[in-house]
Design goal:
This protein is of the alpha/beta class. It is about 25% helix and about 30% strand.
Length: about 250
């Protein structure tokens, strides 16, 4: 196991993969190596896995730690994104479980979103700036369009039902929405809801990492009264069912 404590910006550029619920490892690495990155913001969620994957240098980070040890509110997003950038990640794919706010977005479908809406708190933890460093980044288009198009192309080739464009509303968690909140999100025109991806997108932009998201739909949140309300067990079951497709999409990109 290697320990890294400084940015390595002179090495070969890498593709980062942030694994969400149900995706805690990425099999198929050549020259697989676990790397512990020490950051100014504390430890990331887990050791990062580095190596050659499908013909390119890839760095994998399990967002919630191996075995799903961390709640959404316990994630150290700054440490996670710093660790990826320290290993010269220049492009990143975030795999994330989401609830659907639209009838036509069914569980086990995939959305490749192009917009976010922020309903989180602790925003001082969602930036590398502050403590005397004053800066602002453009965030009108928060996700990489080139990388989005690559994900769409490979998701379709994998035979997945995939939806192009949509707004991901991000809440803190760990509790799921009330019905009133879910209905309000629908009336505001949001498409899916999750708890993790927006802080990653903000920090990736500051770190000059091009990011795109594979939003794995697991449930209908709680607005659809004829469906069972969302549970953690249902989320994991649906994400695990889509995990192999996610890996195939990532390998093809």
């Amino acid at each position: 196991m290697t320990v890294v404590s400084a940015l390595d910006l002179d090495g070969p550029p890498a593709v980062g993969v942030i694994g969400g619920s149900g995706l805690y490892d990425l099999e198929g690495f050549e020259d697989r190596e676990e790397v512990v990155v020490e950051t100014p913001f504390g430890p990331p969620s887990d050791a990062l896995i580095c190596g050659n994957f499908a013909g390119r240098r890839v760095v994998f980070l399990p967002r919630h730690g191996r075995g799903h040890r961390l709640l959404p509110t316990e994630l150290n997003h700054r440490a996670n994104l710093w660790a990826l950038r320290a290993l010269n990640v220049r492009w990143a794919i975030a795999v994330t479980a989401v609830g659907s706010l639209r009838e036509e977005y069914a569980p086990r479908d995939i959305l490749v979103p192009d917009q976010f809406f922020d309903r989180t708190s602790l925003r001082e933890q969602h930036t590398f700036f502050g403590a005397g460093i004053v800066a602002h980044v453009a965030f009108g288009d928060p996700l990489s369009e080139n990388l989005r198009q690559l994900l769409l192309e490979e998701a379709r080739a994998a035979g997945t039902t995939v939806h192009d464009r949509g707004t991901y509303v991000c809440m803190d968690g760990p509790a799921f929405s009330t019905r009133a909140e879910s209905e309000a999100h629908r009336q505001l025109g949001f498409d899916v809801i999750g708890m993790t991806n927006l802080p990653e997108a903000k920090l990736a932009r500051e770190a000059e990492i091009a990011l795109a998201t594979l939003a794995m739909i697991t449930d209908y949140d709680c607005w659809k009264v004829e469906e069972e309300p969302v549970t953690a067990e249902a989320v994991v079951a649906h994400v695990q069912a889509n995990a192999e497709r996610a890996k195939a999409i990532i390998a093809a990109v």
